[in-house]
């Protein structure tokens, strides 16, 4: 009788160990998935930020070119009047 209780107790312990190992593996996999998702999200943010900076730089350059052209036209108009 004692032997049966001991065997049952050992089976229960082994089942708990297996369940605990499975839980740890699942937690590790979930953590890895979160890390990969965070990394992908950060990379996408960097990519979007770079696109926005490039677009802003292009617009600034176009605006500067337009202001320069306008200034040249005004200077030309002033010299024609003289």
TrEMBL record:
Residues 1-65 are annotated as: Disordered. It comes from the Eukaryota. PANTHER family: MYB-LIKE DOMAIN-CONTAINING PROTEIN, SET DOMAIN-CONTAINING PROTEIN. This is Uncharacterized protein. It comes from Phytophthora fragariae.
């Amino acid at each position: 009788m004692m032997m049966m209780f001991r065997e049952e107790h050992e089976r229960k312990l082994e089942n708990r160990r297996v369940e605990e190992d499975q839980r740890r593996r699942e937690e590790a996999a979930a953590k890895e998935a979160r890390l990969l998702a965070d990394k992908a999200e950060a990379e996408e943010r960097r990519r979007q930020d770079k696109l926005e900076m490039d677009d802003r730089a292009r617009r600034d350059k176009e605006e500067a070119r337009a202001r320069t052209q306008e200034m040249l036209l005004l200077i030309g108009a002033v010299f024609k009047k003289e």
